[in-house]
Amino acid sequence: MTLVPAADPAAARASFRAGLAVPSSGWAPGHTQANLVVLPRDWAWDMLLFGQRNPQPVPLLDVTDAGSYRTVLAPDADLRTDLPRYRVWRDGELVDEPTDVADLWTDDLVAFLIGCSFSFETALLDAGVPVRNIEQGRNVSMYRTNRECRPAGRLSGPLVVSMRPVPGHLVATAVQVTARMPAVHGAPVHVGSPAALGIADLARPDFGDPVESAAGDVPVFWACGVTPQAALMASRPPFAITHAPGHMFVTDVPDAVYRQP
Amino acid sequence: MTLVPAADPAAARASFRAGLAVPSSGWAPGHTQANLVVLPRDWAWDMLLFGQRNPQPVPLLDVTDAGSYRTVLAPDADLRTDLPRYRVWRDGELVDEPTDVADLWTDDLVAFLIGCSFSFETALLDAGVPVRNIEQGRNVSMYRTNRECRPAGRLSGPLVVSMRPVPGHLVATAVQVTARMPAVHGAPVHVGSPAALGIADLARPDFGDPVESAAGDVPVFWACGVTPQAALMASRPPFAITHAPGHMFVTDVPDAVYRQP
Which residues in A lie closer than 8 A to residue B182 (C-beta atoms)? Predict the structure, then answer.
């Protein structure tokens, strides 16, 4: 039996709730997907301030009340069960990758839903900009940079970027399209030189897969939603839950809501 | 001797620090001015979340570390002395309007700098849209509405809007110009009908001055930075400091930084 991604967000979440653990790319196309970070109340101030101070890598789409597993981005969803796969962190170390975190959820937890570049990839394709990682069926390449985020309380860490090779004559289009979507990372943070960001070898990403460039492509770098996971690794809160890379939260919100005029 | 507003932000702040207590409109033109809200650490989570959940009325430009009176928006400034006039609130009641709050500042306080419509008024004028309150030398008209903000912890209250009469053929221009400036309240929240917002009489604003319309003008309503002051009045934290209406914090940041492509 071939697995067909659900077109409807609620149906997608129901599949993941039932235990299906696959990357969410291609599910409920046209609907915004979100990164998830869950932290104890004691660390929530630091995370909320980290997002406020670093809106390009950490564009906050919603923040829950302590203990709540509901979000305005999908009122019927349950954040404890509806992602395809989670990561559980203790003292900054990855300790588990379950498909459900209902047994770990307490009244002390605050959930942060963070914009994801899947939204702007759709917009790039709509504008005629090829997206090489999609063409090649790979996760996007992501790199730690030599740029530090602005710290917030106990949270600090490097800016993480995603890289997409873009044909030189379409770089301006890619900038314009993504600049209109600040809630999903916005315009690129750098175009052209990996070395300027402290990236030694594009073929060896820190997260995701290597993606091949075509002749005439230029590397374009966007702030990446993995940045808060890098901050968790660097800052070591006692407990955290995140989504597993590529296994995002599917919201009910159309991508178009986050496109500005 | 005629008082001439300083063109330079640092010079403007120096005048206010020296005790000059005048509205800041027209000072350091082209530089962003900001609303100020200062709250004890215990209430800072509620305020930060209130801003995250209500970005149109409460666009957060910077949030300080507890105890700090410094901001990235003007590294040389002192938030305790550099505004022309402050308001001091206890249990939601206005108790004082000093020109300096150095003696009230403690290590427990967190300051929130919030975008201000002065920035988009400049952009409207640049685009040929008349701004009646400036023409008439009055503070803008502001109204409590029947729309509730999305609550955050203990903070809740009504959306407050500012109203500017705009000639009918320029409403589209006004929408486009302000939509590009989400950090200073962005696009209008309503055009045309005061009654739809629960506003009984445009001639009797809740804050600011009445502003007269010209023939053919349409009332246009924008989310307003007085919204957090209304929330303080409704939610009654034990202590708060804000700017006095019209007596804003002058930053070093050019308005253009907050204009999107």
Answer: 182, 260
User: Chain A contacts of B64, Cβ < 8 Å?
Assistant: none
Q: Under an 8 A CB cutoff, do A179 and B261 touch?
A: yes
Q: Who's near A217: CB < 8 A, 6+ residues apart?
A: A132, A165, A166, A167, A168
Contact between A148 and A156 under an 8 Å Cβ cutoff? The reply is yes
Q: What residues 179-208 of chain A have any CB closer than 8 A to a CB of chain B?
A: 179-180, 182, 187
Beta bridge partners of B88: B96, B241
Please name which of B239, B251, B227 lies closest in space to residue B87, comparing C-alpha atoms.
Answer: B239
Q: How far is A55 from B200, CA to CA, in rounded Å? A: 38
Chain B residue with CA closest to A73: the answer is B53
Identify which of B101, B93, B122, B92 has the alpha carbon closest to the alpha carbon of residue B31: B122
Chain B residue with Cα closest to A54: B62
Nearest by Cα to A124 from A51, A76, A188: A188
What are B141's strand-pairing partners? B163
Q: Which helix (H) or strand (E) holds A221?
A: strand A217-223
Question: Which of B44, B52, B260 is opposite residue A63, by nearest beta carbon?
Answer: B52
Comparing CB atoms, the residue among B49, B65, B260 nearest residue A48 is B49
Proportion of chain B above pLDDT 70, given as a percent: 99
Distance CA B17, CA B68 (A): 17
Beta strands in A68-211, from DSSP E residues, in sequence order: 86-90, 93-96, 109-115, 141-148, 158-167, 190-191
In this structure, what is the dihedral angle of CA atoms B195, B201, B203, B207, given to the nearest 10 degrees? -80
Kindly list the averaged pLDDT for each block of 10 residues, start to end, along chain A of length 261. Answer: 83 96 90 96 96 96 96 97 97 96 97 93 93 90 96 96 95 94 93 96 94 95 94 96 93 91 69
Residue A136, phi then psi, degrees to nearest 5: -95, 0
Domains and CATH numbers, chain B: 9-18+31-116+235-256 (3.40.1640.10), 118-227 (3.30.2040.10)
Which of A45, A153, A176 minimises the CB distance to B261? A176
* Distance, C-alpha B208 to centroid of its chain: 12
Average pLDDT for consecutive 10-residue bins of chain B (261 residues)? 83 96 90 96 96 96 96 97 97 96 97 93 93 90 96 96 96 94 93 96 94 95 94 96 93 90 69
User: What burial letters (b/e) apply to A210-235, b meaning 16+ CB within 10 Å?
Assistant: ebeeeeebbbbbbbbbbbbbbbbbeb
How far apart, in Å, are the Cα atoms of A44 and each of A31, A58, A155, A227?
27, 14, 10, 16
Q: Are B222 and B162 in contact (CB under 8 A)?
A: yes
Distance CA A193, CA A208 (A): 20
User: Among B42, B48, B113, which would you mutate to test the A interface (most chain A Cβ atoms within 10 Å of its Cβ)?
Assistant: B48
Distance (Å) of CA B159 to CA B57, B114, B207? 7, 15, 13
